[in-house]
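Hi everyone,

Forwarding the result from last night's run.
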Amino acid sequence: MSKSTCPAGEPSVQLQGIGHHFLGQPWLFRGLDQIFLRGRSYALTGPSGSGKSTLLSLISGWEKPKEGSVLRASGGATSWVFQNPHGVRNRTALDHVVLPLLAQGFRRSEAVDIARTFLDTVALGEVSGRRFSELSGGEAQRLMLARGLVGGPDILLVDEPTAQLDFATATTINQALMSVKKNQSTVIVATHDERTRDACDEHVDLSRYAVGREETYATV
């Protein structure tokens, strides 16, 4: 399992004067400055439509901001756990976590042992042999988190990880998210869940960067 190559406390992502909107739509936010450090966790909060998922896209490089710059440390790996889990219908939960390890060069036996550890971390050890199509929505979400964690990414982006989960399972997920920091990863979580927010080291409230009505609509 790989680990971040840079020491904890160093910047993995820097946002400088970020502002973004979609064509013909209002600005989601403007003037956002933020440094994300290795070995730290960050909760992105704000009302629906405030741009939490969009900001994850900007951080990952999938989208380019309309204003400002996103500076990422070179050579780092990014994993993203989406709000709606997607998997291969007939592939087992275990295989979903084993395959990224095989791609890193682990032998099958080693990959299976590591994958089982991560499945246990998100309370899926007992269903490791089930097909993806047999998992509940909450189990599928936890499986995607285990797969995102297993590579030891430099940056882990997570979109609403506890939205479909009960209290006990959500607590397990929050603990798993915080454990990945030990690998010097930067964990950035978009969430409405106060428990997830409070489990993170820092809180970025996007409502602070919302635009006033006099400059709501963008012209470009």
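The chain has a mean pLDDT of 87.

Cheers,
N.
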